[in-house]
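writing this on my phone so excuse typos. first protein, seq and then structure
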Amino acid sequence: MTKSGTRVRFAPSPTGFLHVGGARTALFNWLFARKTGGEFLLRIEDTDRQRSTDEHTQVILDGLTWLGMDWDGELVFQGANLERHQQWADQILETGHAYMNDDAVWFRMPDETLAWEDDVYETVSFEGKGIKDWVILRSDRTPTYNFSVVADDIDMGITHVIRGSDHLSNTPKQLAVYQALGVDPPAFGHVPMIHGPDGKKLSKRHGATAVGDYRRQGFLPGAMTNFLCLLGWSPGNDRELYFNMDELVEAFSLDGIQKKSAVFDLTKLTWMNGQYLSRSLPAELVPLIESELAEKYGIDAAARAAHVERAVLAVRTRARTTLNVAYQVAVRLDAAFIERDEKAEKMLRQDLEGFRHALEQAARHLEQVSEEGWQVEELDASLRALAERLELGLGKIMQPIRIAITGGTVSEAVNELLVVVGKDASLRRIRAALEWEPTVSG
């Protein structure tokens, strides 16, 4: 087969969901292909018939698309290549590089050193004599992984294999197969594994590991892609935020892949997602929270479009996920969803009298503000004047109002919050909070 340009592949098994480690591998392959003007191919390794499902295949495709990756050409399904695998195995058998044993075809490992220049780890070598012969075709004539992957990579014209470092030990077996077939091997680059904060390989014990889970938990694709790309790769400068795909392609190189394992830091991902949320326009975020608003809070975003967009604009800078955006929007649109946080409860327990006094004064004062005057600047000046008249620090007025309206101690500026919620609703919440009693501390 004639090879034309760079051709890389991502070859997931449709026996589970798209793992974040697999997503990062796909991303590195995609970036390399786009940077070199080559092709990014997708091969579904579905030879495990019992565990492979169409549902998992679709989840993988959806995850790649959500992260902003496309692929070239049609999908390749490994299971459809069985006859071709058998032909390759028979060729190796005929040349004496394999032999029959118990009706299976066994590959005869050479004694010499098997070495390659890895695009990440530089020179890597294994002694062939230290690796036992291994089965390439089982007795039922189905191929094993290390053989079928070579056969498929040859037929697909793959020029570079970029994959996880857990495949390092597979590479000498695969190199030996290339030699036996008389085919030049592709370049190999092995990407260090992703570990959890405890230094162990990332797994479910560390929390969500599937890309789809993070999507459902309210993470943005731009933030997720940005985060994954920086797991074990550096652009060569201190920048770590707001890369779009074109910028990542421009900055990417295999030289930037680090040899040490990367740590999946959920705290950093959450912070990064918050940064992306703060820069997103309401028109971009509203479609992402519509279903959450409808299903969990019974709010029709389309019917209340102006109110929802205004609330999104107010809360986006303090949110960390779109689920949190939806909750904060719901609170501003309907007092039924107010949940007092622990800091609010602490204030009620420690100074219930002061809390109520501030709200009583605020209610009387705000009732006198006209609808026309219920604006950000006017409310700010008015509340400052109230605090001065009562000889109280501004926070002694603002914080009780904030808690009464949202149930929490953190929000946008109180004058902005009052405008978002509206005069009548704000006053109803303040009066209702006058009847609050603190919960009993556990």
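second protein below, same order as before
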Amino acid sequence: MPYIPNSDEDRKKMLDKIGLNTTADLFTPIPQNLRLDKPPELLPALSEPELTRHLEQLSAADKEGGLSFVGGGIYNHYIPKVIWTLVMRPEFATAYTPYQAEVAQGTLQAIYEFQTHLCRLTGMDVANASMYDGATAMTEAAMLAINQTRRQKIVVSATVSPLYREVMKTMLSGRDFEIVTLPAKDGVTDPAAYDQDIDDKTACLITASPNFFGCLEEVEKAEEAIHAVGGLLITIFDPISLGILKTPAEYNADIAVGEGQSLGLPPNFGGPLLGLFTCRQKYVRKLPGRLVGRTLDVDGKSGFVLTLQTREQHIRRDKATSNICTNEALCATAATMYMSLMGKQGLPRVAELSAQRAHYLAAKIDGLEGFSVWSQAPFFKEFVVETPVPPKQIIAAMNKDGIAAGIDLNRFYSNLDHHLLVAATETISYEDCDQMVRSLAKSTSSKSMTEVVI
């Protein structure tokens, strides 16, 4: 490919097209204090031992015993050590591409087991080999609904992750689709909006339970509303929650998607993630991505192979049902090992402990002067706290104690300027919860606020 530089005139045309004046305007979404006004001062070249020592010194400077109550879609669950010990074996980490089945039986079997576990967990008929993340899985689900119903309208609840909705808006920006957002009320979808915004032009209704606020939705009402007009119900699930909550199949969902990071993947600064995608059998030929099937060879022995969709389907441009032709196979392998190790007893126990810790913490915070739990809706492992001061001040103050307090919801919802999203999993002890409450109380003291302002 030849290198073709852009001229000043080319750059001006591109900026004019997107309504900007200068290249610097591209960085407007990045806070000013995070931008560099000059090149960074880099260290001189170091040898490997010197670099290792430098990195160890930087690591030692981090606060020990830090606690994180940050959720918002990525959670800190315990990961048994055996999982990544096995996952990083070369048989998995450098496995051959599964398109050539005769030399990729190990990879294909691992993906098949992943699909099997996911179908058992959700109660759905079919699962694919995974997607990039929960957001792209949701968008692909909407595309499947559009292809199936031949309708152009997508209805999504405001309680679905704003990050997911932004990804969907970006991925579908070049298509002539209508995206309608249902309003929220008390942390859940306003039930009155179902009758107002869902009609016979609606391809699908997208709802999440637990939703972005951690609340459990009344999915039965959503299912009744969308199926009454012949549309598809897409539910977004937390895989850990399915240890104790109803499955998407029990809600009569047509497509169920989710983020699989909780299944054996560390938070790791936000990635890599793992998109989960399941659906009813009748939509299997419109399923995006890879699908592994089990068959018999000429000798009657079991074998595994990519099925229903050939590689060429994904490069047929406008005729393809999806342009996703890959998956997070290594992450899916880790998730398969996690689900296998936890089993029918372990997964419900993780879910129970997470719910217990979150409800204990919510009750303690609700008793603090000036604080209250925002929604009265039932929740799983995450909840919203109304705060007496803007959450960003609390977050900054608690950072001094080595505690990540949660997420300032004003970042995503302009009307929630005193609302903090807090999560707790089985990795958080009751003592950790008490420490969080003490630090939270201290963070709003006049002395602490003065230090933050200064």
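The chain is about 35% helix and 15% strand. thats all i got for now
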